[in-house]
Amino acid sequence: MLEVKDLHVSVEGNEILKGLSLSINAGEVHAIMGPNGSGKSTLSAVIAGREEYEVTSGSITYDGQDVLEMSVEERACAGLLLGFQYPVEIPGVKNIYLLKAALNAKREAQGLGEIPAPEFMKLIKEKAALMQMDASFLQRSVNEGFSGGEKKRNEILQMLVLEPRLAMLDEIDSGLDIDAMKVVSDGVNSLRSEERAILLVTHYQRLLDYIVPDRVHVLVDGRIAMSGDADLARELESRGYDWVLEESVA
Amino acid sequence: MSEDTQRFLDRLAEARADRAGEPTWIAARRQAGAARFEAMGFPTRRDEAWKYTDVRAIARGDFALAADADFSPASAATLTLPIDAYRLTFVDGIFSASLSQLDGLPEGVSLQPLSVALAENHEAVGGPLGRLTGVEFSPFSALNTAFMEEGAVLRLAPGTVVEKPIILQFLSRNGEAPVMSHPRVLVQAGGRSEATLVEHHVGEEGAANFTNLVAEVILERNAMLTHYKLQEASLADLHVASIHVEQARDSRYTSFNLNLGGALVRTDLISELNGENATSDFYGLFYGEGRQHVDSHTLANHNAPRTFSNENYKGILDDRSHGVFNGKVVVKPDSQKIEGFQSNANLLLSDRAEIDAKPELEIYADDVKCTHGCTTGQLDEEAIYALRARGIDRQTARGLLTLAFAGEVLEAVRLDAIAERVELAVAGKLPERFNLAGLVETAVALGDE
Known about the structure:
Oligomer: heterodimer
Helix content of chain A: 40-55%
Radius of gyration of chain A: 18 Å
Distance between the termini of chain B: 62 Å
Number of strands of chain B: 21
Number of domains of chain B: 2
Largest interface: A-B, 39 and 34 residues
Low-confidence stretches of chain A: none
Number of helices of chain A: 10
Shape of chain A: globular
Shape of chain B: globular
Distance between the termini of chain A: 32 Å
Structural class of chain A: alpha/beta
Mean pLDDT of chain A: 93
C-alpha cells in the first residue's frame, strides 16, 4: 500500500531522515519506535504532507501514486490521515463542522455525493459513543478546552468517522492515563481490518500492549536500525535503545 | 440651504397639514428639530463624525411617507423571528395592529405604539421623550424629531421581570417608490426590572427605503435590559439609527448590534453610565458584501465612579464593502475605579474591501483600568493546516474559520433563534465556494434533538 524508498528529509537545513525505507501492506499494523530526536514524528508528518519539511531525495508512493506530488488535503481525502501528537485547538469551529466537512470532502474525492443528514447524524453519534464522548463534544469547538485525553480521543473519533486506509498516529499515548489509554486503543483496534493499515509512532512499549503490532521498526539517527515483530518492542522495554545502536553499528 | 435639505423640509410641510390637533409640546419640538436640521443640513465627510461615511445616497433621495401598513400576513410570518415573544410590528414606519402580537402581556409591562401612548397620555410621554437626546446630536436625530409620530413606548414597572422577549419589528416594503420612516422608541425600565428587547429590521427583497430611528433607553436603579438590534433588511435599504442609553446605579445594559443588511447603515450607540456599578456591554457583528457600507459608532460615557464598560465588535467584509468602527470610552474627572475594555477585530475577505477602525480613549481621571485593541486580521494558518490535514480544502477551511470568527460574538447571544439565524446568514453569505450553510443546519438539527 505504502512504499517509502531511501527518504531524505531536512528541516531548516538539518537532515532528519537519512535514507529511510519502509513498506506497509494493507492489513498490517506497524510501530515506529526510537529514542527522542531520531526522526519518528518526521516520518508520519512527511507522509501526511507537513509543509515545513523538505524532501531532498527519495520517494513515497501510495497505491502507485506519488504522494509527494499531492497536497495535504488530497492525501487526507485519499485515505492518508495523521492523528496529531499535539492536536490544534480551533476556537469557534465546532467538531461537527470539521467532521462533516471532512467526510464530504472525502466523499467528493471518491465521486460520491454529500452524506445525507440523518445518516451522518447516526454515524457520528455512534462513533462518539464508541470513544465514550458525550454528544455535547460534537457541538464544542475543536479541542478547545479539552483535556489531553479528550484531545486524543477526539483524534481517534475523526479517524473512526473518516475511515482512512492508512491511519498514522503520532504518540497517541502521550498524556493518557490508563482509562483513556484503554478507550483510545480500543478505538484504534476497531480500525484494524484487511483493507487498512496503521502506523503507530511511539516512544514507549506500553501502547503496544494494547495495540499489538505486526512489525516494529527502531529508528535511530534518521534510519531504520532494526525491524522485528512485537517481541522486539518488549526487548526494547527491558534493554533500552542503546544496544540497538551498538548492534546496528556492528 | 441646499436642495437636498429643502426637499426633506418640503415633505415635512406636507405631513404637517395632518397634525393640526397635536399637543403644543410636540409641535414645539418638531419645530426645533426642523430648525436644527435646516441649519445643519445633511452631514458631509468634512464633519469628523461622518468622515468615513458618505450619506449622499440618503440626501439625494426623494422619500415620501408611507400611506398604509398593508403587508400580507403570510409573508410577514416568514420575516418574523421564530421566538415566543410580544411584538409590535411596523410597516414602513406605520403601526400594524393586525401583524402585532400583544396577547398575555404581563402586569407591570406597558408596550404601545407611540401614537397610542400619546393619545392616551401625552404628558407622560413628553417628560422622558427627548431627555437623552435633543435635536443637537446629529442632523438625523433632528430630522427624526421633526417627523416623529410613530414608534414604540415600552414601560416596565419597578421589579417587573419579563420572561418573553419583546420584539419591535420594522418591515420594509419594496413598493412603487421608496419611502422613509422616522421611528421613535422610548424605553423606561423601572428599578430592578429585567427584559429583553429585540429590534428587528427586515423586509422585502429590493426594498430601498430610508429608516431613521432614534431610541432612548432609561434604566433605573438595578434594571437590566438586553437589547438586540438585528438589521437584515434588503441590501438596498438605507438605515440610520441612534440609541441613547441612560443608566442609573447597578443597572446593566447589554447591546448586540448585529448587522447583515442595508446598502448604507450608520448606528450610533451611546451609554451614559451615571450611577456607581452600572455596566454597559456592547457586542457587535457586521458583515459586508457587494458595496455595502456599515458604520458603527459607540460611546461609553463613564460619568460616575466604579462604572464598567466592555465592548467586542467584529467585522467581516467581502467584495467592495466598507466598514467603519469608531469606539470611544470617555472617563470624566472624578470618575475613579473605572474599567473600560474595548476590542475590535476585522477580517477582510477581499482585496477591495475596506475598514476604517478608530478606537478612542479619553480619560480625565487617574485610577482607571482601560484597554483597547484593534486588529484587522488574517486567519490562523496553523488552524487552516489542521483542517486541511483532514481533507478539507483551503477555501472551506477559510470559510469555517471565518464563521468561527463571527461565532466569538454570537456565543454571547442568549436567544438561540437569533444566534442561529445570524450564523446561518453569515454561512450563506460567505462566498459560495465555502458552502457552509449545510454544516450549520446540521449542527442546529443536532442541537434540537
